[in-house]
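Q: I'm teaching a short session on how sequence maps to structure, and I want students to see two examples side by side rather than one. Could you give me a first protein with its sequence written out and its structure tokens following it? Keep the formatting plain so it prints cleanly on a handout.
A: Of course. Example one:
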Amino acid sequence: MILLFSIFVFIAILQNNMSDKQQEEVIWEGSQSQVLNFGIFISMGIVFVVVMALSLLFFLPAAVLGIIPLVYIFVKWLVVKNQKYKITTERIFYTTGIFSKKTEAMELYRVKDVDMYEPFWQRMFKLGNISLSSSDQTTANFLLKAVPKPAELMNSIRKSVETRRDVKRVRGIEVLGDEESIENL
């Protein structure tokens, strides 16, 4: 009887611990903006128009060369379109590749610093870059390029990093280098 009661208590404790664990939820999912390719789109568009105009004036079969800038535009568009970010409450995923896909993951509790950069050109489109520094050996620095609403995303990442560190009971330690010794402070 006591053994049966002990088993029920053990199962209840396990179920309680399982229900306490949060499920990994998606905070944000998206890709880089095509604004990154704006200069390429404009310059290759001009090259296309010039090639077509010259081929009409001088040598009509040269119009076939006009396809080269269009193919270049398509490839650049496809590369940016296939770079995807997924930020969850536990990790950041970065997937690249057109035919073969590669996905990298970084644990949020390893993130040491989150910075936001808003270059002028991207600010015009309400975009920005978010830079993450981490203690991860393979991905020490990670850049989320041209993401919408970067300030909101940066705050979401920062809050998730702190929450994840609390769950894992992890804290970062900064070590002073030679130039920043205690005597120099």
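Q: Perfect. Now a second example for contrast.
A: Example two:
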Amino acid sequence: MFTPPNFPQNHFLSNLLAIVLFLTCSCLANAQSLDFYLKKGLENSPLLKEFNNQLLSGTLDSLLTSATYKPQINQVSQALYAPAGKNIGYEEAITNGGNFSALVNLVQPLLNKRIKESQFRDISLSNQAIGVNAKLTETDLKLGITAQYLTAYADYRQIQFIQSTLNLLKEEQEILKSLVDQGIYLQTDRMNMALAITTQEIAIKQGMIQYRLSCNDEIPN
């Protein structure tokens, strides 16, 4: 009877582990395309490697099963030497000085077609189950990496937007400083501008923290 292989129960957690291990090392380094991260994620997944090893094991099992139904040749031999000398040992007339015997057996399993087909069917079903689980794991892994990539990209774009706003505010601050000195604007306007710039700088720091969290990178204290 076919028995499904024993697969890990929590595929998603295993996939996330592969994502974390990969993105932690590479997300904040040089920016790469989504295809690059997908490729690396699939290559570094321990679960996918385990499935590949199981498929290889199934192939070897099939070869071993096939070999057991081929003719098997066995040889059994025995050698006996009876030393003889002056006043010691055995009489050569009795032992002939030694004895050698050999037996060769040829074994060919017969009338086992149903058993053979059943064994190969079990191996095939096992390999199919492994293949299906490998495809499901690969799909989950791709979805996880894609979602992580998009989240990190959105955080990055938000940082860029805040930085552009901050740059504009700093340019306006220089103009406002001149206008305040000329008495066109009040000092409170200048203070409000400084507060707005500080707010944007804090927002950038918070955005960087969120971005690194999205990349599963460790946030220093």
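Q: What should students look for in example two?
A: Point them to this: The helical segments are 11-26, 34-43, 46-68, 92-95, 113-181, 187-214. Also worth mentioning: DSSP finds six helices and four strands in the chain.
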